[in-house]
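Re: weekly structure request thread

Next one in the queue (463 aa):
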Amino acid sequence: MTTKNNMFSELVRLEQLRHIETSRAEALSYASIADMETHAATDFNYTVLLKRLTGRARRLIQDNALTTALQHPQKLFIRASRISLFAAAILGALAAGNAVGESSTLNIYWLLAVLLGFNMISIMLWLAGITLNLQGLSAGVVAQLTCWLPYRHKERESDTIASLAARGWWETCLTGTVGKWRISMLTHQFWLTYLATGMALLLLLMMAKQYDFIWGTTLLPDSALPELTQWLSKPMEFFRLIPPDSYQIAASRVGAAVQDAETRSAWAKFLLGALLLYGILPRLALLLVSALMLKLAEHRFKLDLYLPYYITLRQRLMAHEFESRVIDADPKIAEVKVMTTPRPAGQGVPQNALAIGIELDDHIIWPIGTHCSKNVIDQTSFSEAAKMIKKFDGSLLIGVAAHRLPDRGVQRTIRELTANASREVWLILLRSRAAIPVSDTRKLAWFRTADACTIPAEHVITQ
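Done, posted below.
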């Protein structure tokens, strides 16, 4: 299955329409799609189905004027992202401004702590979240609020078309693998803005005014911060940035003599180099990685075609094509004419098929005209059913109770019976006379079981 020819935005619109049609189908007009013909195919083709789904979606969107409602959630997310980046710029400016003392001094390590310290903690949490697949760690608090606040009323709102479209966009774009990398991008953009604003403000301040750089500590040893300075300075030498030497570091302690121009220049280069090397460049690299991973996740995104909504459309838009021909032809007939006829899937039982049941009780209702040849309830009946299937040259119809949970035993039985069939296999979900309700979740489980047993959704019949 591939989505190379389909943009991610089209898949998002399909998911939004799924939410709208599932809850508010009566509010839509279907006049434009009434003339859509069923496509006949011998085998299921994901690309063809996706093309027909997008064509159907375009007609519905145009006729029901849904463009504004479908685009509004994305615009809301962009607006919330811009607000969060504006907040990051303000926080970065405040962090840099608070490090400037009243006596024209810059507390070098306090500045590195507020600008780089929180940034490094955020990077470590993000890496842990990505490695352990924990979205709560990989997404920052501000990024999560930005993604959540515009849709905080989605569960309280009535099921309006606008709220359903927002819910569909939120579930597709902000959850799962796509959501993980989209929120990661917003997280890195937030911290990149925070660092860039703080660095820009510091650069402007140091260009417009003369500052002395100071440092001091109460609890740490006197040699701790100078050693940290030398350790941070080593990578800067590759970029020809001359860090402060031991004499300049000692002369910059709180209470020391007034600094000369060379010391101030060394500290300024060290500060800007540290912010660039340990803050902005790592964030920029992580932002690029997240952007590439987001594109890859969107490229790999696939619709869950075994949801009840897509199963219904799959059976309406993709008819099964079968061949009708003479099996035992008269030897005098030189050529057998093959006639191809499209048959709408899921709307009838295949004729002259061998019907086999799996652990059915006496309350199960078979369609009129269909007779169950064997009900598999134990190993003996299974062996007899397998022999019948091997001898039978025709379609196989496997009947199961729709209200039952398809456990591993039933799935193994279906798979083994299917392996003995020489022709196409169908699965029919049978009702009970006891009128046991069958939820959409249970139907979905049966469709997934059929897919696991190589029975396509077009061959699953529901009553």
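Residues 372 and 442 are 23 Å apart (CA to CA). Residues 1-5, 320-347 have pLDDT under 50 and may be disordered.
Next request, please.
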